[in-house]
């Protein structure tokens, strides 16, 4: 749906979104200890809701262009979506993956505006430092502050001493 677009409550797109939000709400409220338990609960609680969603969208007659494309894509991916009922480890949504690759996309887009190859390289180095700090559960601001201060204090700081996995760095900059 387009943000800011006002749709009637009885519009097919609105009803489809409401049905799908019930699926996600149910998924988020599952309580399980193992993937097998998650799979079992999904089959019992989530599958009927997802079946209702697909029955609804497949029954919409003469949808408008954008809704028709959304329905076509949802139906095309139905067999993949239904794999969550066979494999408990699969997430219902790919949001986590989307968020994990987002920094790469930002880097790529920002590099387009670098004035030179050296500028693009500097951007890449900076983003690499930030992402490495995040992956090592460091407070990124504290870590950057520490390494910039070290660099300004010394002409040749021992770089190994400032790597994110160094115990001293973890202690000073850990979350």
Describe the structure.
The chain has 175 residues and is mainly α. It has two domains: 12-85, no CATH class; 100-173, no CATH class. Helices cover 65% and strands 0% of the residues. The chain has eight helices and no strands. Helix 5 runs antiparallel to helix 6 (117-135). It is elongated. The mean pLDDT is 89. InterPro entries: Transposase-related, Transposase_IS66_central.
Order of helices and strands: HHHHHHHH
Number of strands: 0
Computed over alpha carbons, the radius of gyration is 24 Å
- Count the domains: 2
Number of helices: 8
Helicity range = 55-70%
- End-to-end separation in angstroms reads 38 Å
Q: Class by helix and strand content?
A: mainly alpha
| Strand content range | under 5%
- Name the average pLDDT: 89
Given the C-alpha coordinates, what overall shape results? elongated
Instruction: State the low-pLDDT regions, or none.
Output: none
Largest sheet at a glance? none
Question: What keywords describe this structure?
Answer:
175 residues, mainly alpha, 2 domains, 8 helices, 65% helix
List the helices and strands and how they pair.
Elements: H1 12-28, H2 35-58, H3 65-76, H4 78-81, H5 95-111, H6 117-135, H7 140-153, H8 167-173
Helix pairs in contact: 1-2, 5-6
């Amino acid at each position: 749906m387009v943000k800011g677009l006002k749709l009637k409550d009885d519009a097919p797109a609105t009803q489809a979104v409401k049905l799908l939000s019930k699926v996600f709400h149910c998924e988020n409220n599952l309580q399980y200890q193992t993937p097998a338990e998650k799979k079992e609960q999904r089959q019992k609680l989530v599958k009927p809701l997802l079946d209702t969603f697909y029955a609804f969208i497949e029954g919409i007659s003469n949808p408008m262009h954008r809704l028709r494309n959304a329905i076509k894509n949802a139906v095309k991916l139905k067999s993949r979506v239904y794999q969550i009922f066979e494999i408990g480890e699969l997430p219902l949504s790919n949001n986590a993956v989307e968020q994990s690759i987002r920094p790469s996309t930002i880097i790529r887009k920002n590099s387009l505006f670098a004035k030179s190859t050296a500028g693009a390289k500097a951007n890449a180095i900076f983003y690499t430092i930030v992402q490495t700090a995040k992956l090592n559960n460091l407070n990124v601001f504290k870590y950057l502050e520490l390494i910039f201060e070290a660099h300004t204090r010394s002409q040749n700081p021992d770089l190994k001493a400032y790597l994110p996995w160094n115990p001293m760095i973890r202690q000073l900059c850990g979350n």
